[in-house]
């Protein structure tokens, strides 16, 4: 299987990205019924947990970038695996909350909603969507090639793009969280 994936990184990236995005769109679109996922009172805390996950992910991504620049690839790999696990945790909590609780209504004034909240949310969502295939591409390359072989691939370039998109998306998501749950709660 690893050999097949290694030989078909773009196609594998496309399939995995499509599946991940389909799950997100199905949850947000209400296609997944609430009875399909376990209910627990903790679901109400998911947005707060995700804010912590997002800030932590920004830190691990930035650490991973720094270690890659210093050619400390063992540390880089650990940081990026941690970032990936944090992303999976974020996505799991987010989808769980959306399926069971729906979206959170913005409680602030219309002017802030129109000129601050919506643009931030739109850019956050767009970057999150664009980020998915780039992150998967970099991860699949890293998972199927040795460190020495990665120099002959587009891993470093894809990784720089993925890290940039990831950091901005997680940061904007945190700002959206603050607006929804603290500034205008």
TrEMBL record:
UniProt keyword annotation of Hydrolase present: no
Transmembrane intervals: 42-65, 77-96, 116-140, 161-180
InterPro entries attached to this UniProt entry: DUF420
UniProt key word DNA-binding: no
Keywords, sorted A to Z: Membrane, Transmembrane, Transmembrane helix
Pfam families named among the record's database cross-references: DUF420
Listed PANTHER family: DUF420 DOMAIN-CONTAINING PROTEIN, HYPOTHETICAL MEMBRANE SPANNING PROTEIN
Protein name per UniProt: DUF420 domain-containing protein
Organism, as annotated: Halocalculus aciditolerans
């Amino acid at each position: 299987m690893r050999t097949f994936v290694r030989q078909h990184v773009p196609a594998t990236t496309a399939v995995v990205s499509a599946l991940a995005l389909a799950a997100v769109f199905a949850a947000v679109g209400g296609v997944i019924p609430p009875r399909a996922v376990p209910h627990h009172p903790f679901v109400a805390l998911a947005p707060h947990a995700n804010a912590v996950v997002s800030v932590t992910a920004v830190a691990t991504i930035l650490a991973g970038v720094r270690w890659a620049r210093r050619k400390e690839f063992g540390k880089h790999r650990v940081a990026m695996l941690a970032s990936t696990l944090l992303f999976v945790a974020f996505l799991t909590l987010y989808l769980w909350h959306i399926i069971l609780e729906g979206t959170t209504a913005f409680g602030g004034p219309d002017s802030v909603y129109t000129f601050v909240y919506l643009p931030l949310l739109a850019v956050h969502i767009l970057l999150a969507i664009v980020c998915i295939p780039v992150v998967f591409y970099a991860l699949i390359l890293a998972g199927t090639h040795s460190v020495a072989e990665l120099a002959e691939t587009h891993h470093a370039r894809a990784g720089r793009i993925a890290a940039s998109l990831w950091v901005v998306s997680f940061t904007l998501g945190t700002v959206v969280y603050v607006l929804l749950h603290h500034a205008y709660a």
